[in-house]
C-alpha cells in the first residue's frame, strides 16, 4: 500500500511516524514547499516524488492535512488524480467538507482529536468509505462515526468551540496574573481544582495557541461562518483576540 501526503506539516509528519509498516510506503513531495517543510520532510523516512500530482496518482490513500484556508483548493487541484481514498484531515466546517466531496471520488471525512504528537491521539472518520481505513487502528486509535460526510468535521468543530475559546481565556487570565506579579500563585490555586498537571497542560496550550494563532484563527472563522445563526459571543471574542 502507498499512503501519500499533500502538505507535510506537523500532522503529516507525526502520522508518517506512527504508520510504520513494511507493507506501507509513505510518499510526499517538496513541490512549492517552504524551507521549513522541506527540512521536516528530509528528517522523515518518506519517499519524495517530483510533484503532488504524482503523489495523488500513485497513492492508495491520499491524505490532505494542510490548513482550513487551503483545504478546498487542494481538493480541487489534486482530488481528480486520486485513485483511492481521499482522507481530508483539515479543520474545516461540514459545509466545506461537502464542497470538497464534489471534487473527490472517495472522500473520507477525518478529524484528529488530541495533540497528534501525544501518546493517545484519536482519529475519527465518517463517510461511506470510512470502513476501508479501519486498518489505521493498528497505528492510531481510529473510530468510525457514521457513513455521513460531515460528521467528523462537525465533531471537530464542536470541540473547537470549547478548546480554542478556553485557550483565549487562559492566555488573558495568565497575562493578567503576570501583570500583577501573581502568576505562580495563580496556577497554584487553579491546580487545587483542575488537577496537579494543570500548570503543565496550560503552558502547552498557551504556547500552541500563540505559535499557531493564524491557523487557529482560521478554524474559529470556520466555526463562526458555519454556526452563523447561533449565538457565539465567546467564540467571536476568542477569534478577535487571536487576530489582535
UniProtKB/TrEMBL annotation:
Gene3D superfamilies linked to this entry: N-(1-d-carboxylethyl)-l-norvaline Dehydrogenase, domain 2, NAD(P)-binding Rossmann-like Domain
Record's signal peptide: none
Chain segments annotated as coiled-coil in the UniProt record: none
Residue span, Pyrroline-5-carboxylate reductase catalytic N-terminal domain: 3-79
Top-rank taxon, per record: Archaea
InterPro entries: 6-PGluconate_DH-like_C_sf (IPR008927), 6PGD_dom2 (IPR013328), NAD(P)-bd_dom_sf (IPR036291), P5C_Rdtase_cat_N (IPR028939)
Full protein name: Pyrroline-5-carboxylate reductase catalytic N-terminal domain-containing protein
